[in-house]
């Protein structure tokens, strides 16, 4: 077993005891990237020079006996929707080709302060719109479990980089499931923190009331440790919550759910969910029962309308957020030959710069917000959003956390759903309610579906600012399943050329 197969906290232990340097660790990951990323295509940009410089600086500090943060010297893959000063940030769009942001996102500032080494930027659906990473203007990412299949989306690059051992940690963003659904279909762990728990400053906006950055990793503890690095109040984001960060690392280490009530959401199973997904989900429930949790069934009837409401709210907000891409301020400019007016240049640039899904959503959102239709569409969707929150509130009266499968199916084939937006949208049926209510959600692997041998994700949802509860349950479930399996799920993934 090579050092790249370790969990991030195990890598950190080796850095601390002096048996490994950050430069060696970083180089080992670039070697793996060189071997497998042509096939996986998790990365859009690699900053090898910057990362090795950062790694060498950490090694020097450690050699001088400076006390360092827990993940100092450990590499990470960053979703290309967060700004990193001087590093190309495309959001998977042609529109932003060549744009180098002049500032760091707060998440990036915190990663750097913690000494985490940023390897590069990961592929994603254009402006985070999608469930398969096929909407990237730079070509799809391939699922390391089966290169013909999707790695989920929009954060498919981040999830695939973990599953392909190209990085031990990654950052994703989740507007309707883009951290959790990719985690589910790649056999990795992904967490959407409570809305406002992590700063959105420097996160290129898709749907501001739903977007949230969060940790991606291969273990629950690694995700928790990364969560504590990036979370916490930021005066630069007015929606950031000014309260102590929930103690998620402590919770992930508890490994105890005795007496906890786990609510199974009736509406998030059954019709439309693959047999093997439901079987593995039930295995997860059995493991929690064996660990001393009590399972209760809860009903959240308005979840049936959450997806429809999301596809009005998210496009509405995106139609306003993406208006900033006007050919004047960022990225590409088409047709500016001195003979055309600003409006024509703007039209040509948007025609050229945005892909079909982004255009579809801008048009949908503009329509939903237009006078005469506003109340019927956007207004109704907001009312549904309130009802979803009420369903959650009522359910959390009966249970400490809620659970469901993270996604209705395992990874589908690349190309299978690209011509059917509605089928694509259904991939987020189980993850979207969490964003609508602004609460926390985690996906962790709960086994492989019998029919196709592909990973299944188990979703845990916790009340706002009680993110520690999902980590407590997730950590316990992970430990129980690990002792049953004998080895982490990713050890069952087929070997990629050059790995292990
Ligand atoms: N797949 C969903 C969408 O396309 C969610 C995307 C996300 O969470 N960024 O809107």
Describe this structure in words.
The chain has a single domain (3-302, 385-492), classed as Alpha-Beta Complex (Amidase signature (AS) enzymes), CATH 3.90.1300. Helices cover 40% and strands 12% of the residues. The chain has helices at residues 8-17, 22-40, 48-63, 106-113, 156-163, 180-186, 220-230, 248-254, 275-290, 306-321, 342-353, 356-369, 375-398, 421-425, 432-437, 467-485, and strands at 43-46, 75-79, 117-122, 169-173, 189-192, 213-217, 261-265, 294-298, 401-405, 440-448, 455-462. Helix 2 packs antiparallel against helix 3 (48-63) and helix 8 (248-254) runs parallel beside helix 16. The site of glutamine (GLN) has 13 residues, from loops.
What topology emerges from the helices and strands here?
Elements: H1 8-17, H2 22-40, E1 43-46, H3 48-63, E2 75-79, H4 106-113, E3 117-122, H5 156-163, E4 169-173, H6 180-186, E5 189-192, E6 213-217, H7 220-230, H8 248-254, E7 261-265, H9 275-290, E8 294-298, H10 306-321, H11 342-353, H12 356-369, H13 375-398, E9 401-405, H14 421-425, H15 432-437, E10 440-448, E11 455-462, H16 467-485
Parallel strand pairs: 2-3, 2-4, 7-8, 7-9
Antiparallel strand pairs: 1-3, 4-6, 5-6, 5-10, 9-11, 10-11
Bound molecules: glutamine.
The site of glutamine has 13 residues, from loops.
